[in-house]
Specification:
The complex is a heterodimer of chains A (about 260) and B (about 625). Chain A has about 260 residues and is of the alpha+beta class. Chain A is built from nine helices and seven strands, in the order E-E-H-E-E-E-E-E-H-H-H-H-H-H-H-H. In chain A, helix 2 runs antiparallel to helix 6 and helix 3 runs antiparallel to helix 5. Helix content of chain B is about 35%, strand content about 15%. In chain B, strand 7 and strand 8 form a beta hairpin. The model of chain B has no long low-confidence stretch (mean pLDDT about 95). The chains are: A alpha+beta (about 260), B alpha+beta (about 625). The structure holds flavin-adenine dinucleotide (FAD) and FE2/S2 (inorganic) cluster (FES). The site of flavin-adenine dinucleotide has 46 residues of chain B, from helix 3, helix 6, strand 6, helix 7 and strand 15.
Chain lengths: ~260, ~625
């Protein structure tokens, strides 16, 4: 099949970008979306031009490295599918496809379709962990976990940190990302001791980054390639309220180390 | 080359505890004066960086992705082994040790493997404590599944995303230390040179992949946890960025490279669809718990799978290996698949495929149970092939998946360069000539969480080193080498793309040094690589500049190294004139086509020493001695 691509090209963070149009000929429906870009890039390189820069690594939908906005939708038209798992059979011969990077103040564009998502790591560093120094653990079966809680925790832990939720949100909020981690750890018995400190520290970091606030559009849930639901946001909000109620000023000061 | 494995004396089961006691310790208040470089943030790297930082060392950690959480460990699906014996089915440290040595076809070092089995249980405890949401039974206790090469159920898992969950556990522990300032993280930085001064590893030179800046980082010791080099085959189950550059640079600085030809071909991957193919996707071995592998009995049978009656199907693994059946080890299952395809009984458009069929287990357990166990894998399969594996059997074919070879290390995980430690898939240590499923995650975390914290302390406590000046001639030379290579690659301005060279190399490797090898093919392959490499350095085209994000330049550097490493792999395969594990030499097989080892001549590790670009490397040997188990012919019948 033959396609027309409108691709965001931007030299670096300091230079303004623009759309450039490319024709993509002889594309097989069995190609993944990124393989289609590979083909376009090979032809650009052969013609002596700079290829389109895009982030990718595993190409199996698990590392969270890839991520572009395809015709206005993060990761493209197919539900619960990352760009690397999207296949060209989802498009028709003659289609025009617009390809852009994640658009969010907290994710500056580095080049073409590549953005800087370091803010997500900083949210985790602020409190998205259980402090269990290596070597200190009791026998794994010493703490039974209700199956349903383990499953719910796993649902939230499936987040790949790609940032599609931020890209989809009209406010560029990182609520779904943060809530997924709060849920993953907060649902488990091992996560209880730090549960309230964790949510406070992570939300504080989220606010300190350039993310917007959540106004319940739920676009994040629709865009999430791993099916993380806004239920996690409900859980996080509840924990946050509990944290403010149960943690007095002195305790908050003690907990301010972020559990570190 | 000093290849003393430093295996401690004493009974096998006491070696590790005794050694831990013998290690010198660094006083707690002195630990912060030491700095350690960790290249890699996978299970081995993130685990190691976090544990060293917890002890109080100052750690600098590097990865080429934009976040440490994206290391390729994230893609592991099926599970992680441990000798917990939670199911009372006869497992033990000894059995895990034995299965691993036997699975590796008796080409691994006994003492290392025993230690691995010994710490396996602590790994599961640690991961659970860090919040890894392992699969549970209704009583709340941990669930297990079975993996190839074992007759006990010892594999712990988190749906089909075990690697992801284990890595997130290690990543979160690492981020906690980053938050405390104990680890400094460098993402999008690629190591391109090792700095060796007075015979000791003292630092690395990296390229900042965003600005192109060439940076030097010095430390008291360097660890490489940079993963496997299977992308030398171009098509593989690895992530696109996985590379051999870090270990190859170390090899060229004097580190021995052990058993490079031990490359694992995984039996169950989604088959190739066309020339555009950029990578292959694994379908986890865990599927073989409930899926049955078959091909039609007739050659060239083009009927739809559902139209082939039961008695016209050949469940060839169950037929040939009745006691292990579909759970025969990987090397054996891959070769069996190749064999039936060579006989013209392969399925799918290319004839390079076999069925993995779930109809029977769906009938027995119900679709919901299968969905709960493997839902995400089935979904992944459907995304790629547009076929529904709940109703049509999967089509699978072997693909390059893992490298047992890697930099040579002693019992302390130290390479032949003092101060250079190698962890995880990047070293050669524990899997011999074939790795069993669910044992790589175990080894990565064993190295990172439970071995390096001890061995590093001993090295630092015993080594007095003066601070190194940033303008030391060896440092300057390493920096100049990195800058010079970049300029050279950019300056060629030839006509052929990097990817086209990589594909060509991959084809040579797959055809000449794949699932079945022989001297004539290996020699022919060996002759094909130098001309390709010569053309690369004359005719490759790398657009753009060196002071910006330049993905063609990144790939060019990696492919340049693969073009050298590929040659060493074939050379090693040629020299190892026996069949063992993954390394099947057609000249050496039993009448029924099984691998035939030559214990007399090859019960050793082959360790290659670099002699300069123009010279042939030298092959050394580390003899393997088995004091505790008897070498036997592997049988899974
Ligand atoms: C699809 C798939 C499924 C698997 N499933 C299983 C399974 O179920 N069970 C099991 O036990 N094993 C499995 N394995 C194998 C296992 O995942 C790997 O062997 C293991 O995760 C390797 O971990 P590692 O820490 O050694 O390296 P990796 O996780 O590969 O990490 C390498 C790190 O090094 C960094 N790096 C590499 N080169 C450089 C450089 N030049 N400069 C700077 N940084 C660099 C990378 O950025 C990364 O952080 C699977 C493998 C694959 C491919
Ligand atoms: S490349 Fe890893 S999720 Fe797409």
């Amino acid at each position: 099949m033959n396609l027309t691509l409108h691709v965001w090209r931007q030299q670096n963070a300091r230079t303004p970008g623009r759309f450039v149009t490319y024709e993509a000929h002889d594309i097989s429906p069995d190609m993944s979306f990124l393989e289609m870009l590979d083909v376009v890039n090979e032809r650009l390189i052969e013609g002596g031009e700079d290829p389109i820069a895009f982030d990718h690594d595993c190409r199996e939908g698990i590392c969270g490295t890839c991520g572009v906005v395809v015709n206005g939708r993060p990761h493209g038209p197919r539900e619960r599918t990352t760009a690397c798992q999207l296949h060209m059979r989802s498009f028709a011969d003659g289609d025009s496809i617009t390809i852009e990077p994640w658009r969010a103040k907290a994710f500056p564009v580095l080049k073409d379709l590549i953005v800087d998502r370091g803010a997500l790591d900083r949210i985790i560093a602020a409190g998205g962990f259980i402090s269990a120094p290596i070597g200190s653990a009791p026998d794994a079966n010493a703490i039974p976990v209700r199956k349903v809680l383990a499953e719910l925790s796993m649902d939230a832990a499936a987040c790949i940190g790609c940032g599609a939720c931020v890209a989809a949100c009209p406010n560029a909020s990182a609520m779904l990302f943060t809530a997924a981690k709060v849920s993953h750890l907060g649902l488990l018995p091992q996560g209880q001791p730090e549960r309230f400190d964790r949510v406070r520290a992570m939300v504080a970091q989220m606010d300190a980054e350039a993310f917007g606030s959540c106004t319940n559009h739920e676009e994040c849930e629709a865009a999430c390639p791993k099916g993380i639901t806004v239920e996690t946001i409900g859980r996080m909000n509840a924990d946050y309220v509990m944290a403010s109620l149960t943690v007095g000023r002195r305790a908050a000061r003690l907990g301010d180390s972020g559990g570190g | 080359m000093n290849l003393d494995p430093k295996v401690p004396s004493g009974p096998l089961a006491e070696k590790w505890s005794k050694t831990k006691f013998d290690y010198k310790l660094v006083n707690p208040s002195n630990k912060r004066k030491y700095s350690v470089i960790m290249v890699g943030s996978g299970l081995a790297g993130a685990g190691g960086a976090a544990s060293l930082a917890e002890l109080g060392y100052y750690v600098k950690c590097f990865c080429y992705q934009d976040s440490p959480r994206r290391a390729h460990s994230i893609a592991a699906q099926g599970g992680i082994n441990a000798a917990k014996n939670y199911h009372n089915d006869g497992d033990s440290v000894w059995r895990l040790f034995y299965d691993t040595v036997k699975g590796g076809d008796f080409r691994a070092r006994e003492a290392n493997v025993y230690r691995l089995a010994e710490v396996s249980n602590s790994i599961i405890d640690q991961c659970a404590a860090l919040g890894v949401p392992f699969a549970r039974e209704y009583g709340g206790l941990l669930d297990n599944r079975s993996f190839g090469g074992a007759q006990v159920s010892r594999t712990f898992y988190a749906r089909g995303q075990t690697g992801q969950q284990l890595l997130l556990g290690a990543y979160q522990a690492l981020e906690r230390q980053i938050g405390r300032g104990q680890v400094q993280m460098f993402t999008r930085h690629e190591m391109q040179e090792l700095i060796v001064v007075d015979g000791r590893a003292r630092g690395i030179v990296v390229r900042d992949m965003v600005t192109g800046a060439v940076e030097t980082h010095l430390a008291d010791a360097v660890c490489l946890a940079t993963g496997g080099y299977g992308n030398v085959y171009f098509l593989s189950t690895y992530a696109k960025g996985c590379n051999g550059t870090a270990i190859w640079r170390a090899y060229k600085k004097g580190a021995g490279f052990a058993n490079p030809c031990f490359t694992q071909i995984h039996p169950t991957c989604i088959p190739v669809t066309g020339e555009h193919q950029s990578k292959l996707t694994l379908m986890s071995e865990s599927l073989r718990n409930d899926g049955r592998i078959w091909v039609p009995k007739k050659q060239g049978d083009t009927r739809a799978p559902g139209d082939v009656p039961e008695d016209e199907r050949d469940y060839y693994l169950e037929r040939k290996y009745p006691s292990y059946g579909n759970l025969a080890p990987r090397d054996i299952s891959s070769r069996a698949a190749k064999q039936v395809c060579d006989e013209g009984r392969g399925v799918g458009a290319t004839g390079l495929g076999v069925y993995l069929d779930f109809a029977e287990s769906i009938g027995r357990l119900g679709e919901d149970t299968i969905r709960e166990k493997y839902g995400n894998l089935f979904e992944m399969y459907e995304r790629i092939t547009a076929e529904d594996p709940y109703t049509v059997p999967m089509r699978i074919f072997p693909a390059t998946h893992y490298t047992m070879g890697g930099l040579w290390v002693d019992y302390n995980l130290q390479s032949s360069i003092p101060g250079l430690f190698v962890l995880g898939e990047a070293n050669f240590s524990d899997h011999g000539a074939n790795r069993l499923g669910a044992s790589a995650l175990m080894q990565g975390l064993a190295d990172g969480y439970f071995v390096i914290p001890y061995t590093m302390g001993d090295y630092l406590a015993r080594t007095k080193q003066a601070p190194l000046a940033a303008d030391h001639p060896d440092v300057r030379a390493a920096e100049a080498a990195v800058a010079g290579r970049t300029q050279r690659l950019l300056g060629i301005k030839g006509k052929r793309t990097v990817t086209s060279f990589h594909r060509a190399l991959g084809r040579i490797m797959w055809e000449h040094c794949g699932m079945a090898r022989n001297a004539a093919d290996l020699k022919a392959g060996l002759a094909k690589i130098p001309p390709l490499r010569e053309e690369f350095w004359r005719n490759v085209t790398v657009p753009g500049s060196g002071d910006e994000i330049n993905q063609s330049l990144e790939m060019a550097g990696r492919v340049a190294d693969f073009l050298e490493l590929g040659e060493l792999i074939i050379r090693d395969a040629l020299e190892r004139d026996e069949s063992c594990g993954c390394h099947f030499r057609e000249e050496h097989q039993t009448p029924d086509g099984e691998a035939l080892r030559d214990d007399q001549r090859f019960t050793h590790v082959a360790v290659w020493e670099y002699q300069g670009d123009a010279a042939t490397p030298v092959r050394h040997q580390e003899a393997l001695t088995y004091e505790n188990i008897q070498l036997a012919t592997r049988s899974y019948k």
